[in-house]
Amino acid sequence: MTLQDYNTMHSELRESGFIRSSYPPDPSETLWNKKAMTMKREELEQVKSFRLRRIVKWAWENVPFYRNYWKSKGFDPSSVRDWRDVVKIPILRKDELRKDLQANPPFGTIMVPDLARRIRFVGATSGSTGLPTFQGWGALELDYFEEAQARYLWTFAGVKPTVVYANYLNMSGFYSWGPPLVETAMWRCGATAIAGGGETYFSWKNRHNLIFRLWKVDVLATTPWLHRLVGEEARLEGWESPFKVLLLHGGAAAENTKRKLFQVHPNARLAISVWGTTDGHMAIEVPNLDGQLVIWEDMEIFDIVDPKTDEPASEGERGELVATLLNHFTMPLIRYSLGDYVKNEFVTDPDPTYGITHARFVEPIPGRVEWMFKVRGKLLLPIYVEDAVNEIPDTTGMFNIMVYANEMDKLKIRVETRRSVDREYDSRAREILAGRIGLNPDEVEIEWVEPGKTVWTGYKLQVFVDQRKK
Predict the structure, then answer these.
(1) Runs of H (alpha helix) within 244-303
(2) What is the pLDDT of residue 395?
(3) Where is the AMP-dependent ligase C-terminal domain (predicted)?
């Protein structure tokens, strides 16, 4: 019966137009899915309320993990009547999933048994903070996520027929934003998709640079740091990168980082921050609204809590990001902590360029809660340091913050530079860093290295190097 209900819901989502079923659209269409993207707020909130009640009821009736977990927390599913009631649901954190996974491998008891045998894609986190957690995607979940990708690719990035898009995200390791989903969204848009894979850039640099030049890639998707590196390599080798649109994944791009990207990519007219997680959460920066990331509210609900109390953060306060996927039935993720540190403030006025009515974060998502660190009692995040590093002359923008204690006396940082370092250069650099993040110059210690000597993890610069004893 669960399989039949699942297939019925999938058909209804397509027939009601939330998942576009005819594609690619005519290139003259500005929005990928005008109906879904410009719904009246009242209708959108009705959809959210209905889908929240539905996924909570589904999880209670079909998922042993949620039934047991919610009972242990004294949660009554019938208390959820409106989307605002999402805050009544107990928060789920990754440690709970890991315990269940270890006891009931490979997916734990969080997957619907009848659907677990029919998954089409297995996703997994990196496991950098412990045992990886796995996600199972069925036909419905894949279809909706491809729809969500196509919305911003077509509408914001202009990914349409005859456009060449290169995906330099992770092509391996169970990563959902690779070929299983993003390339499929490309085909919906009618574009040419190149699955390059950012993690191989360092070992196949000449090959990748040749592909960029020969194929005249229009849109490049990778991390802000790899975008910068590719542009720097192009300038050193004497050619101009062809990219017109830069999609910035894997970490919020600091303001000065974007400025540098336009310098090293002279043909780029647009740089868009794309925030997302392996398990299918996403928010996309709207062009002409710097730092404001739109949420597809027919897809998920975000709320923000004080990480110490789990109580909802007050409006305007920063806290821990919690999310509920409204259409993930194979493996529901309900009120699941994403661990990002964000401001609890959203705008819902239609954006002036496209008329999209879905809510937007008022500022970028700066980083994960565990990336926060203290120097002289001052709470910092890597993005604040990144903005300052990009003001130092002759650096590549690449850096590693060495976190050696919970309370640090100095900011210890490794920075790449192209010039020989003398006392004057080092002193000026420490003044720039200290001034931007509110420290004294003698509270900053820089280890200068030549280009290519900072620490990376695949296609991501390791901005936060944790040296604390576990």
Answers:
(1) 255-264
(2) 96
(3) 377-468
